[in-house]
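Researcher: Go.
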Amino acid sequence: MKLLKARIKEFNEVITHQLDEDFTDWFKIRNTEPASTEQLHKLSSFFETEMPTALQTFYQQTGGIWNQSEDYHISIPSVFILLEELKTEQNFDKRYSMGLIDAIKHSWGNDRPEFNHISQTKIDYINTNYKCIGLYRYDWQLEEAFYIYFDDSHQFGLVRYHQDEFDELWDEHLTPMLTKTQADKPFEQLLIEILDCLEEGIVNDSDED
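Model: Structure:
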């Protein structure tokens, strides 16, 4: 995790130097409390598959990461938060599994009726074979998100979903995953690429202002 930690530090330094002080806290990436061994053990049962070693290390050393911005936002919840969402009985807040489709629905308050038209067999397949750990947003505020997931080979990938483009989500992203994984990057590499993307967007918007 040394490269990722260094990139987060660099990201925050760029934001601090590039933006007015009033906006620094808005975009700055924060860490949550690292996971305990007990918490990690509890979460592993919800994954229903072996957790990637790099992800375990991230949870134990970093905990989770997030920032307050809606338009250039990243959120990889801590193990504590995930366990709370998995255990709650409130439908709006409940994370029904660590599966990718359940994670997409959870980020919309479990109110994405478009999935009702997809066969349960296909939904179960994607939830079983692809586990989601977080998301990021790029300049679309709450209308769009890129979901961060991993497969059985412990490779990581992204799935894009815009609220008005369900057909694109299903046809271009999820349907191909029914026959072949689209994940192709190690955990640390993918997160660094996401930070590169977010930093570029923030800095470009700042320059325009």
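Model: The longest strand covers residues 131-138.
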